[in-house]
UniProtKB/TrEMBL annotation:
This is Protein kinase domain-containing protein. Signal peptide: none annotated. ATP binds at residue 75. GO terms for cellular component: cAMP-dependent protein kinase complex. Pfam families: Pkinase. Keywords: ATP-binding, Kinase, Nucleotide-binding, Serine/threonine-protein kinase, Transferase.
Length: 239
């Protein structure tokens, strides 16, 4: 309880106005609560389709056998391929940092599984496709879309940076859209908790100069350079 020292105005916001302002975020929170279930096991999941393929495995659309409205993406990484490419550290980083992050502009992480041959990442299913593909389908993105996508990434990066995390590989391929068009950051494998680092990591077209020539190392500011390149794509079209 707070007590004012003198006469103070009291401002009120009607419930309907409040819900109108935060409505989308309320829906997002309710959806996240609906999906989050740390007791899920691999046996609880039913595969519906393969929705993506990558260097280390596939991504499958799955649902909870007990509730088909709970749909997830299951990323299946081949242990053999991960070891062959010496990517064990990146897989561990993605797991550890994903488990720490909870933000509406970052894909929701649920949990991981493993067996003798694969490591599995269970996340929310984003069925709007990659932002990369949207840029190529649309060409020059309308101004209000550009502003929305840019602002979403600003919020995601600010959240990571506030926790001392550099993202280091921001590009349209690492941003997915959900069914309502919300943009969400995915793939946290290149992240690093540090104030300064010297490792060359990322995608050349989106790298800041100090990453390519890390004489003095670089900071999380490199993420803002990458966002600037993405914003350029929004305005003038794909690189």
């Amino acid at each position: 309880t707070g007590r004012a020292r003198g006469a103070s105005p009291c401002l009120r916001l009607h419930k309907t106005a409040f819900l109108r302002i935060v409505g989308r975020f309320r829906e997002e929170l309710e959806q996240r609560m609906h999906l989050q279930d740390l007791d899920l096991s691999m046996e609880d999941l039913q595969v519906r389709a393969v929705v993506g393929r990558g260097s280390f495995g596939v991504v499958k659309l799955v649902h909870d056998r007990a509730d088909e409205t709970r749909r997830y993406a299951l990323k299946c990484l081949s242990k053999q391929q991960v070891v062959r490419e010496a990517q064990q550290r990146f897989v561990c980083v993605e797991r550890d940092i994903s488990a720490q992050c909870y933000h509406p502009c970052i894909a929701q992480f649920i949990k991981t599984f493993q067996d003798d041959t694969h490591v599995y990442f269970l996340t929310e299913f984003l069925d709007g496709g990659e932002l990369w593909q949207a840029i190529r389908d649309i060409g020059q993105i309308p101004k209000h879309y550009s502003q929305f996508y840019s602002a979403s990434m600003v919020l995601a990066l600010d959240y990571l940076h506030s926790r001392g995390i550099m993202y280091r590989d921001l590009k349209p391929e690492n941003v997915m859209l959900d069914s309502r068009g919300n943009a969400k950051l995915i793939d946290l494998g290149c992240c690093k908790k540090a104030l300064r680092t010297y490792t060359i990591v990322g995608t050349p077209e989106y790298m800041a100069p100090e990453v390519i020539l890390p004489i003095r190392g670089y900071t999380r500011a490199v993420d803002w350079w990458s966002l600037g390149v993405m914003m350029h794509e929004f305005i003038v079209g794909p690189l």
